[in-house]
Amino acid sequence: MTSKLKQIHELPPLSDPLESAKRVAAYKAVDENFPHEATGEVVVGIGSGSTVVYAAERIGQLPNKANFVCIPTGFQSQQLIIDNGMKLGRIEQYPEIEIAFDGADEVDYQLNLIKGGGACLFQEKLVASSSKKFIVVADFRKKSPKHLGVAWKKGVPIEVVPVSYARVLKDLYKLGAVKAIVRQGGSAKAGPVVTDNNNFLIDADFGEISNPQKLHNDIKGLVGVVETGLFVNGIANKAYFGESNGEFTTQE
Ligand SMILES: O=C(CO)[C@H](O)[C@H](O)COP(=O)(O)O
Q1: How many angstroms separate the alpha carbon of residue 124 from the centre of ligand 1?
Q2: Which NCBIfam families does the record match to this protein (predicted)?
Q3: Is 149 in the pocket of ligand 1 (CB under 6 A)?
Q4: pTM of the predicted structure, to 2 decimals
């Protein structure tokens, strides 16, 4: 069925080269991993952010898209599914997902990720950890030369129950954070960002993270923490990176 689709090299480049990099990563990830020939129902996870927009666009171009049930990771992703004419499902109905596509803020050499720059980390982790195959789509800026905390300098996003934020901030400093702040809405909203789950987000900078699994476990053990943006322990199967020269690279 892929042969009926326009191939990526047949498409005109986008005006912003960074957008072209995101598109090539996402289209290639879908083309090479999506079960195109499936005739029965396929449950697909759709992540959040600006790169996964192109993955949803590509899946929406498939002629058998009526067979797919797409599980969102938040409000933006729900809109993406609807806008691309795909069937929307809920994780409560489909707790087992065949394949999920999502972006990342940083990817290390072992395919550990920092996610949550778009404030959707909890549902993103729920969907990714419920998927048999989890494919990351990103542009070249997201690759870390080695550890997490090198390319992404804004800190590890952590979703917390609102009433616990002050306590968690103190505890994060005890765990070694050099800076921890409650994410603010800025000019778009006075006060903190409120997630799709009605929680707050803390961004905690731990510098270069040599043991992301341990850091995740330590943060997850704090009272008030719902989830961390450290995606570790082999959760991601493969990453596609759009490069600045219009090509793509992979890591698995
Ligand atoms: O984790 C995320 C949202 O919570 C995004 O996937 C991450 O921020 C990457 O976004 P983009 O593709 O726009 O760079």
Answers
A1: 10
A2: rpiA
A3: no
A4: 0.95
